Amino acid sequence: PSSPSYSASKAGAMVYGEGMRAWLAPYGVRVSVVVMGYVETAMSRRYQGDKPLMVSAEQAAKKIRHGLERNRPLITFPWILGFGSRLMEILPRKWSDAILRRYYNFTVEPDRDSPLCKSREP
Fold first, then answer.
1. What is the gyration radius of the CA atoms in the chain, in angstroms?
2. Model-wide pTM > 0.85
3. Which residues contact 101 (CB under 8 A, 6 or more apart)?
4. Which of 10, 75, 95, 114 fits as disulfide partner to 91, beta carbons 3.0 to 4.6 Å?
C-alpha cells in the first residue's frame, strides 16, 4: 500500500520474465526470474520500515547463483516470504489488504544525489 507503482513494476517484471522464458526456450536461451526479499544494500539502508529476514548481498548472490546453476525458472528467497506472497493471493482481499497495511508500510529516504533530498551535505 505504500508503493503501488513499485509493486506493479515488480509484478510486471516477473510476468515479463516468465513470458520471455517460454518464448526463448526453443532457442536454447534460459530465463530465471528472481523474486527476493530484503537484501542489505545502500538502498535498503534508506528504507524506513520492517525488513524481515534480510540477507547480505553475498548471501543473495549465492542463492541466485545456486538457482541459475540448476536452471530454476523461479528463484525465490527467503522461501517463507515467497510462501506468504502466494498465500496472500488466495486470502480474501479484505484480509490481505489489512495484512499489507499493517506490516508493509514503508518509506525510502531519497539518496543524496536526488533532487528530492533536502540536504546534500555528506
1. 17
2. no
3. 1
4. 95
